[in-house]
Design a protein that fits this description.
It is built from no helices and four strands. By secondary structure, it is mostly beta strands. The protein has a four-stranded antiparallel sheet with strand order 1-2-3-4, with no helix packed on it.
Length: 81
């Protein structure tokens, strides 16, 4: 699948030296073959100033003996100067 030319790469955004930290993690739905997790994370510059924060819900399902992420839905995205 080709990458759209209007989607910037991390280096183009100045993110090449940044670090992402997981701020929160919570299982919001769980069964034997499906799980939905809510996360909150922050991307930091080397000087520890924030680049962005976001929440996201990741949904994974069990296929055979493997678990696969089938959906990721970010929201509350906040960008910083």
């Amino acid at each position: 699948m080709p990458i759209s030319s209007d989607v910037p790469f991390p280096a183009e955004l100045g993110w090449q030296d940044t670090r992402v930290e997981l701020d929160e993690f919570k299982v919001i739905l769980s069964s034997d073959d499906k799980v939905a997790d809510k996360i909150k994370c922050t991307r930091y510059r080397p000087d520890r100033s924030k680049v962005t924060t976001l929440d996201a819900i990741f949904t994974s399902v069990k296929i055979g003996e493997d678990w696969r992420c089938v959906s990721r839905s970010p929201f509350n995205i906040e960008m910083f100067e």
